[in-house]
Structure formats: structure tokens, C-alpha cells
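Researcher: Let's try something more involved. This one mixes different molecule types, so please make sure each is placed in the same coordinate frame as the others.
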Amino acid sequence: MDNLIYSLHWFYFIVMAVGALYFYSLSRNPRGVPRYEYLIAIFIPCWSGLAYLSIALGQGFLDTDSGIVYFARYLDWVVTTPLLLLALALTAMFYKKKKDKAIIGALIGADVIMILTGLIADFSSGLQTYIWYTLGVIALVVILYIIWYPLRKMAQSSSAELGRHYNRTALYLTAFWVAYPTVWILGPSGLGLTQSITEVLSFIILPIFSKVGFSILDLGGLRKIGLETGNGYDVSG
Amino acid sequence: MDNLIYSLHWFYFIVMAVGALYFYSLSRNPRGVPRYEYLIAIFIPCWSGLAYLSIALGQGFLDTDSGIVYFARYLDWVVTTPLLLLALALTAMFYKKKKDKAIIGALIGADVIMILTGLIADFSSGLQTYIWYTLGVIALVVILYIIWYPLRKMAQSSSAELGRHYNRTALYLTAFWVAYPTVWILGPSGLGLTQSITEVLSFIILPIFSKVGFSILDLGGLRKIGLETGNGYDVSG
Amino acid sequence: MDNLIYSLHWFYFIVMAVGALYFYSLSRNPRGVPRYEYLIAIFIPCWSGLAYLSIALGQGFLDTDSGIVYFARYLDWVVTTPLLLLALALTAMFYKKKKDKAIIGALIGADVIMILTGLIADFSSGLQTYIWYTLGVIALVVILYIIWYPLRKMAQSSSAELGRHYNRTALYLTAFWVAYPTVWILGPSGLGLTQSITEVLSFIILPIFSKVGFSILDLGGLRKIGLETGNGYDVSG
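Model: All components are placed in one shared frame. Result:
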């Protein structure tokens, strides 16, 4: 890898550190949003930043015959993507005292399958790659179904304002998550159409928006709702 | 591996896919059985099918000096066996509003130890193999103790019908789980008495019964009980 | 490794087995302490003992260019240290019916980061080692902050006796946990000042006190409190 790519990973690490500190500062004045929402928002950039740091330090990737495999990315995603989905699900269940564990379990199960099939696809070649890639896309479709049907209904039946906030947040997440496999299939792990540098840029810019950007949007909306509705629920959970 | 073995793994993958779709279709008409029971029943064949698919694609095993180690099987078991035990424990606690997390934790802890010691045994040789194997069997004994004493008492004290259903389901699981280490010790990872093809056949037939078969039996019984007793508890959990 | 080191690991394995049996015997007469406290105390030495057994059997370490990396230790810690923190957090929340999952999540998140950065540091060299080591120490500082501020306040606001017991237990854990990175930085993975045998001795003696010793102290105090206060809460959880 050349120096530009190392610099980009350092840049990403710093953005994540700043993001974590920002969410920590928000948590000092929670405005009716439960603490676990802040905790999730803080942990995601910590974990993701460490994964990218390992790449910046020349450790989190493998030089294989079929190109560089950034396995640290998958280590990042297998933890942060379930947490992003958990944050979205908890947003939909904002007013529910008892969280729906079956839906959360289904989301996380499908997500872990999506990330692992992506990892195996990255280490595969030829037809194998496309079989695993297809299975990963099926898992993504299941996730999107859960986000846009049962979860959305839950948010909308709680309050009109929560419904609108949920729609915005879910749409934001959907747009970025659909972008990932698109970049992947166009990139060197897939069809090899775009250059490695483009792919790496995408894997710097996309995750910043889909992680720190997502939490800014989600927490911002919840803080507005939490402030207006007051302490209608237990903040301590 | 020869073509027959590849074909058998493809066959297994298809059976699991059909099983997952079947449990999904049952979940559309839950009949008083909580959704998480269906979720567990759906996730188990999805995960197990993917693990076997990796073997069918020539990826999920290693050719070592002491024979082929199918590590994908352990990746399968380390996820599906805790879920099978969770399903059984939740069956015993069918009428309990507050699930007993200590018992579930003990079951899963012992189970993870059982699977990991089995994996290490498979990568070991000589005396080491038998030490790890013995520790795995001890973990199995702990699991069977929990199944047949505290959990069984819980099911029987709830209702006579649940007690009978639990006994049937626990006996079914016990029979198949005792068969696993028996096949293992007789097979090439252990004493090497039986041929590899016999072992692989056992690792196709046994898991179909102990996974999809188990869930058919468990869900079938719960659906009968759920239908009769009505909505005596919260289905949403 | 020489025979002394193997013997020491066998010795550790036996101590852990005795510890697990001791906590099991205590659990037969719980004295108002919830069963999950015993379960955690039993599971920790089981898991840790198995990890050290793998070293005693010549399996749980790698001979690398920069010295022996005992990866089984990290496999030990990544499971047992979250459980030790969970036990301490549950002690602070002894009288709370609803456990504070946000605090437990924060503790476990920081802890997993601490162990993983330590593992990467052990496999790194030069400057990399110190970057990862520093990040691990930051995670430890976060853990100690949570232990000594929010958790301590929780324990002290519950009862004076629980507050005293919590202080004792937290101080004990803090002392041993601060000793770990000190030994590490002085040892061959870090500065290389002390000899390998000293380090191994430290990794036998320290963990016995910080695992079995911790649980003896914690359970002993809770049993005294539980006996005096009677069944003021739900033992079944």
C-alpha cells in the first residue's frame, strides 16, 4: 500500500476518535435519551477506529494472491453493524418499556450472516465468490425487510414524530448499506472494474457517514423528541 | 474428498434451506407460541446450512497430517448447539414470564466448553486427544444433568402436558447428542475404527435429525399446547 | 519451555478445578445470594483452567521470532475478565431489581478492547507495541473510572454494608488489574527487563488471586450480607 492509503486510514482513525468524544460530550446532557443509546454511539467509532488503526499500522490486512484482503474491516463490521442495527431498532422501540428481543435477534442474526458471507467471499475466487456474495445480499434483503416493515410499523404506531424520525434514520442507513455491496461488486474483490484507490476511498468516506453520520442523525432526532416528551420512560436502562 | 461427499453436503444444504422456509411458514400462524421460538428454529438451519455449504464449496476443511479436519462443523456447532439448548430451556420455561437466565447461562457455558474442547481434540494427537475428549464428555454430562434435573422439574411443575412434551423433546435431544461423541470416538478423529465415509454420513444424517427434526418436534408440541391453553402469556417477547 | 513451566501450568489447572468445585459446593447453600453469582464464580476457573491446560499440554502458545506468545492467555482473559467485571457490577447492583445494562455494557466493551489491544501488542514489535499497549491502558482507565465512580455510588447508596463490601472488592480487583500491565511492560513482551520465568510465575500467581481469590472475597461478603438481610429480593434470577 502507498502512503496516501496509510494517511487516509490515520485520518479515519482521528475522525472516529473525535466522533466518540463528541457523543460522550452529548451523553453528559442526555435530554431524555436513554444512556445505552449514547453508549452504542460511543462504542461504534471506538471499535471502528481501532480496526482502521490496525490497517494504518500495517497490520490489519493480508497480501494474498488475489489482492489485498483487509480483514480488519470485517472485524470492524461484525461488531459495528449489529450495533448500528441495535441503535435503529431501539429508536423504533423508543417508547416501548419492554424491548422486542425477537426482532433484535433476527436483525443481528441476519447481519452476522451478511458480514461473514462477505468475509468468505473476499477470501474466495471465481464462482465461490458470487455464491457467497449472493447469500450476503439475501441477508441484506432480510435486514431491509425487518427495518421497513415490522420496525417501521412499531415506530409509526408510537407517535407521528417518532415515525418521521424513524423513516429518516432508516432511509439514511438503507442508502449507505446498499452502497456497500455496490462498491464491493464493482471493486477489486468483485468484478475489479474500479481501481483499488477508489475502493479504499469508498471504504473511508462511506463508513464515516454510515457510522458517525448515522449516530449524529439518530441521537439528534431522539434528543429533540426526548426533550419535548419529557421523562415518559425510564432513562436508567 | 470425492464427489459423493460433496454431493452429500449439497444435499444437507438444501434440506436446511427447506427446513428454514418451513419454520418461517409456521411462524406466519404462530398459534400462541412466542416468536423467538420460531426465530431460533429458523436461524439454526440457516447457520448450519451455510457451514455445510462452505464444505460443499471446498472451503470449510483443512487437510492436515492426521487427516481432514472439518472446522466448519465446529463453527456450525458453536452457534447451533447453544441455540438448540436455548430452545429446549425456553420450552421448559414456556409458562414462566421471567426466564431463568442463570440456568440458560449454565447450559450455554457448558455447551461452548464442550464444542471448543471437541475442536481442540480434533486438532490434537495421541494422549492430548483423549484429555480434551474426556473434558468435552464431562461438559456434556453437566448439560444432561441440567436438562434432566432443574429444567425438567420446571417443565413438570408448570403443567402435566408441558411436562410430557418436555420429556419427549429432551429425550430426543439426549439420544442424538450422546450419539455424536460415540460416532466421534469411533471415527478417524478418535480411534479410527470406522471409515471416513461412514463418519461423514453420520455427520449428514445425525445433524438433520438433531436440528430440523428437533425443531419440528419441539415447535409441533408447543403449537399444540399453545393452541389449547390460549394466550396465557405474552406472545410478543 | 522447560519442565518447571509445564508443571506450573498443571498446578494452575488443579487450583482452578478445586476453586470451581469449592464455588459449586457454596452454591448448594446459597444464603440469599442469587444463583448467577455462583454460576459466574464457577465458570471463571473452569474456562481459565482449560486455557492453562492447553499451555500445559504444549498447545496454547506460539513460538514466534520475538519470543513465545501465549495466545491461550488472551483466550482466557477475553472471557474471564468480562465475567469478573460482571460479577463486580452485579455486586454493586445487589439490591437493584433491574440491573443497569448500560453500565454493564460499557464495562464489557472497554474490557474487550483492553484484552484485544493487549493481544495485538503481543504480536507487534517496536513502536506498534507501545501504541497498542497505550490504547489498552486507556481502556483500563475507563474501566477503573466506571468501577470507582458510577458503580461505587450505586453500591454506597444501597446500604452502608454493601458500600463497604463493594469498596473492598473493587480495591482488590483494581490492585491486581493494575499489576497486570505493569508485569507486562516489564516482561519480555514489553521492555524485556525481567526474565521469562519471572513473567510466567507472575502469570500463575497473579491470576489465581485475581480469579479464585476475587470470587472468594466477593461471594464471602455477599453471603454475609445476604444472610443478614434475608430474602429482600428475587433469588431466582
